[in-house]
Amino acid sequence: MALPTTIDVAHLSKNFGAVAAVSDLSFSVQPGRVTGFLGPNGAGKTTTLRMLLGLVAPSSGSATFGGIVYRDLPRPLATVGTALEASSFHPGRTAQNHLAIYARAAAIDPSRVERVLRQVGLAEVGNRRVGGFSLGMRQRLGLAFALLGDPPVLVLDEPINGLDPEGIRWIRVFLRELAEEGRTVLVSSHLLSEVQQSVDHAIIIAKGRLVYDGTLDGLETGARVDVDAPDRAALFAALSAAGVVVEPAEHGFTAAAPAGFELSAAQVGEIALRAGVPLSLLSGEKGGLEEAFLRITGVESPPDTAEATPERGRA
Amino acid sequence: MSIVSAIRAEISKLLTTRLWWILLIVLFVYVAFVAGILAGVFGALANTDPVEGAPAPVAPGNLHLIVYSSATAIGYVFPLLLGALATTSEFRHQTLTPTFLANPNRAQVLVAKAVALAVVGAVYGAIALLGSIGGGGLVLAITGQELHLADSETWVLAARVLLAMALWAVIGVALGALIPNQVAVLVIVLAFTQFLEPILRSLSFIAEWTAQVGQFLPGAAGDALVGWSPFTAFAGTGVVPTLEWWQGGLVLLAIGLVAGLVGYLTTWKRDVT
User: Fold this and answer.
1) A·B CB contacts under 8 A
2) Please, which of A7, A37, A77, B90 could form a disulfide with A149 given CB 3.0 to 4.6 Å?
3) pLDDT tens-digit readout, B33-71
4) Per the structure, how many domains does chain B have?
């Protein structure tokens, strides 16, 4: 493996005609940990990753690996390993040949093919045509392609999608190991619950914009607070004056931090105390991570699973 | 990434799916069959006394060359299809993604693909010659005609067949980049080569100026490169204008380069989503 490398995205934007798929996105991904790249379907995750990899040209901004754009990397597959969701295989080609072709194109030692097939548990079926592979096996083959050049950076788009429970357990452990080896691991998902147990750090986007960049714990403390007071008018005025987003609820009010800020029950209590408003209810949101994720991404109902449809209908 | 790695990868791509040998077998059988029929017809004609006053349909001494040239005259569509399908399958199966990840130099990838197809196209030429010389030669021998296998003219024809088939495969790659939809390119290639071009060529013989234009049709240029073709043999008595062999080759090369360049700019460089 080559030296550890960061992923640096700066003011990245992409417009498809009049539609802004990604807007002024900036973040960086550090080595040695698993970073989740999260957001609902259509948030711009895949477009961002494809810009990062030189497959889609950005409208503006830059995406680099330690300061070098993908197409200028001297040995791209040995620096960045990629498994994109639109797993692309010729159905008539064997898994082995699929990998051998790209190893040849990127001047990678052909012995790596057997090695990565073993690593992802496909050694037995390496000489079978990919057309007969299940979605889970295709995901593993995609991962094998990513590992081909033993790269310090891994970019994986929805790698858990389509895996069975055993496969999900396997990939969680696997991602951990890769990060512990000092690699930079960026994993995208539209379901927080999918990656909740494996990511150390989360970058969340919605509608092409960054909405959160931090730890998952931090995400949870940013949750809403249920609050009420006998003098609701005074409470509303005090919270609003402090910049808190206040919404009426059955129990009184739901207080939330404006986008990009965090709000705890303690802070709400302090605001009320300063304003001299006695409280009758003060309770931190118990909804947890998933709730916080849905709130921050502006999705009220659970995200649809259209993206998880296994087959792409291509012969 | 070096161009050598890129070419080797492109050749591996061709050889690791079934298309190349299926097309190759069909090419061999088809060319051997048609060359056999042609040899039979021409051989029979050569053995009959010419009708009084009518010119001989084929100069008897060149019979074998016309029969052998069916390798390209009817076989050229096979390397053309192979090239077009090789390029469009990258779009269809979304393998452009891993291809460009392994080698982000897209122009180099397209050139490597063209070179790889030229090599395999020449191999198609060799197999097509086996078909036309084998199938046609067998019938020529049966009908008592000379095979002229040791003639330098025969070997010049063979060399030009290899070159022509290589160029047709390159044109296929370029067409695939120009029209990335696999079904569309298949329909266009088959409709043009099997239907439209033969009609246009026949019509072009009507007037002298149309014939001047007609010699630049891709199939006509290909036949000019090889030097012989059953098509021109049937068409008439030598008044049909034909390009020099090297001009024919340049026309094919130009078609490949222009289509390839436009394809590169319009589809190959586009976002891969």
Assistant:
1) 89
2) A77
3) 999 999 998 877 777 765 555 555 556 678 899 999 999
4) 1
